[in-house]
Amino acid sequence: MNRLPNGHRTLAAALLAAGLLAALPAGAGAQGSGGVQPGDPSLVDIVPKRSAILRTARAELARNVRERNGDNIPRYDYGKGSITPYSIRDQWCVAFGSWTWVQAGFDDYLGTRLLRTAFGGSLVAIQVTDLSSWARRTGHWTFRATPGDLVAYGGAHIGVVTVVDRKGRAVKSIEGNKDNAVRPVVIDMSRVTGYVSPTPVTAAKRVARTSALADVD
User: Fold this and answer.
1) The pTM is what?
2) In angstroms, how far is CA 35 from the centroid of its own chain?
3) Which residues of 88-101 are buried (b: 16+ CB within 10 A; e: fewer)?
4) pLDDT, tens digit, for every residue of 118-163?
């Protein structure tokens, strides 16, 4: 029987709670969302890939990425080191977010209209409005957050969702180009426009903006 490594079980529980994972047929599992259990083979692929998004974002956060004097060229070691692979020599929050996705094996976003080749050679999305419009057209837009999604807020900013705090009505994210750096951010759900999923959202995540299940206020 395929089982998830211990490190992925917390994320698996979050995915189940968010309704991201498809339900198994009735009677196929025990208690929980659709009877899916963390040991089920259906979780083996998606949970490690979502975990890889978070791992990649956290690794970049730990490398002290900064620009030099607001030049839109992110570099490691507080702006003194090498240029990051997601640099596009322009505003780079969307580039950073989509780069974490492609490092984890998610590339649906390549259907967006505006793409650019980043410094490291990856094609990345580059604009919040374009990415959000693509997500709405293709079923990747949701108001129910899951770690690994991109959170759109404030009209023109994107971050990688790391934690969904429904009791505190906030999401935690790691963001590129936040004060010219990669930084952790806590976003009140009242500021959130919506979330972009790296994969098409399931029926359980297709909630109305006014729903009690929505992670927007």
Assistant:
1) 0.81
2) 25
3) beeebbbbbbbbbb
4) 999 999 999 999 999 999 999 999 999 999 999 999 989 999 999 9
